[in-house]
Design goal:
It is a multi-pass membrane protein. Pfam families: Toluene_X. The protein has 462 residues and is mainly beta. The protein has a single domain (5-461), classed as Porin, CATH 2.40.160. It contains eight helices and 19 strands. Strand 17 (400-410) and strand 18 (415-433) form a beta hairpin.
């Protein structure tokens, strides 16, 4: 038997949480909703538009266009509707049995994330920028009787990204920007362990008899597929990493420009703990199948690198009231070919991931309808980095298509409000996950996901 793979599954949960939130998104584990203004045009010109202080995050070279001290702040609400249809099976060693449970109850999530951007001119040709946002934020909570409980039950993720930057005018038309980033991640994840199924496999293989142990029934195990004997795993971890941002902006004239932004990879060594909890009657056989399958807390280290990204954006003012913009962003998700996990008391575990590099395309437009109000809209398409063969319950997505609308209302020369709304077209993914040898269960089903994001922000100039 290869029941040692149960340990791999438990530690792999740390990665799925800290590197991939259950908030379903085709852009890996990143959350785009970092600006109310940008949300309204599907983030279509972030590296080139440079109309407010959020350019400190999207392209620090654009800071040079801001001639006053400016503050941009707001919040984004991300609503994720998730529906699972399907089931799971386990085995008693001889026959295939259904895992008893429901479809997960209501795992939908509503996540609120803040953002703050500051731009302050230092000289005529130098502008300082600061950004504080939350590019990682998610949570989900399946019922304890979920049929997929051996793969996911609950999760929380919170990540803070702080960047200080400076934009410098090199010539009248060309500017450069550079920034230093600090990134903090904190998260937790829970899943159950199929204790009865593991014992049944050990008994069917003859391992119990060879060791002189009583049968599973004699030890007090219920029928595999029930939750009576389930163990549970809760994993937690956090870390701080550092990176850089670099940007370029070229202005053909006041109404046309092109921008480039590079955001570096950030290395994380996530110190984590995994708490294993099991009923007392399971303690005789489970540790023989895998030393981790007993009441204990396991320390470990997960090496995680968030990938670098390159953005190329263009902006053109068609006339005094109408502008258009576009963006292409490449993300190096192919860094996740393998995942290395280092338990404190065991050998390194290498798990294939097979992620692919992705391209995101976005187009947007804005129309000024009055001196006080501007309307905008946009559309985006983002490739999924996960190949079909590694789709799973925590990452059940495909390429996404999103549409956005937004508005800016200027109360005065110094104060404006931005509002954005985006809807991602529903995604439906078929999933087959797990094996009897590694998880003592196999999950088969369909996950449908709808995402709607709303953001409101304020811009203050002094």
């Amino acid at each position: 038997m290869r029941l040692v793979c149960i340990r791999v599954s438990a530690w792999l949960c740390v990665f799925w949480l800290l590197a991939g939130p259950i908030y379903v998104s085709a852009h890996g584990y990143q959350v785009d909703e970092q600006s109310a203004r940008r949300l309204g045009d599907s983030f279509s010109g972030g590296a080139a538009e440079a109309r407010d202080a959020s350019t400190a995050y999207y392209n620090p070279a654009g800071l040079i266009r801001l001639k006053q001290t400016e503050y941009v702040t707001g919040i984004s609400l991300i609503n994720t509707q998730t529906d699972f249809e399907g089931g799971a099976v386990t085995t008693d060693g001889l026959a295939v049995l259904p895992v008893q449970g429901n479809d997960g109850g209501d795992p939908d999530s509503n996540i609120v994330i803040p953002h703050l951007y500051v731009a302050r001119p230092l000289t005529e040709n130098t502008v300082f920028g600061f950004s504080l946002n939350v590019p990682y934020a998610t949570g989900t909570d399946y019922d304890r009787d979920f049929v997929g409980r051996y793969f996911a039950t609950e999760s929380e993720l919170f990540g803070v990204h702080i960047n200080t930057s400076v934009g410098v005018a090199v010539t009248e038309r060309f500017s450069m920007g550079i920034g230093l980033s600090l990134q903090y991640l904190d998260g937790s994840l829970g899943n159950d362990v199929n204790s009865a199924g593991i014992c049944a496999l050990a008994e069917a293989s003859g391992a119990l008899a060879a060791l002189g142990l009583p049968s599973c029934a004699q030890q007090g195990f219920d029928t595999p597929g029930t939750s009576t004997d389930d163990g549970s795993v809760l994993v937690e971890g956090d870390d701080v990493g550092f990176g850089v941002t670099f940007g370029l902006l070229y202005q053909f004239n006041e109404g046309s420009r092109v921008g480039f932004n590079y955001r570096s990879d950030i290395e994380h060594n996530l110190d984590g703990e995994a708490e294993f909890r099991f009923p007392a009657h399971t303690q005789l056989v489970l540790p023989l199948a895998d030393p981790n399958l007993r009441d204990r807390t396991v320390d470990g280290l997960l090496e995680l690198v968030t990938p670098e990204a390159l953005s190329l954006s263009g902006f053109h003012q068609v006339n005094g009231n109408w502008s258009i913009q576009g963006d292409v962003t490449w993300t190096r998700w192919s860094r996740f070919q393998t995942l290395t996990i280092e338990p404190q008391d065991g050998p390194h575990i290498v798990q294939p991931q097979l992620w692919d590099d992705t391209l995101r395309f976005a187009l947007g437009t804005e129309v000024r309808v009055s001196e006080a109000m501007s309307l905008r809209a946009g559309a985006a398409r983002d490739e999924s980095p996960i190949p079909d063969e590694t789709l799973n319950l925590n990452f059940p997505f495909e390429d996404y298509r999103a549409f956005s609308v937004g508005m800016t209302y200027r109360f005065s020369d110094t104060l404006a409000m931005d509002v954005g709304l985006q809807h991602t077209l529903g995604m439906e993914v078929d999933i087959t996950q797990g094996t009897f040898e590694s998880d003592a269960a196999i999950l088969t089903g369909t996950v449908e996901t709808d995402i709607t994001s709303f953001a409101i922000g304020f811009n203050l100039r002094r």
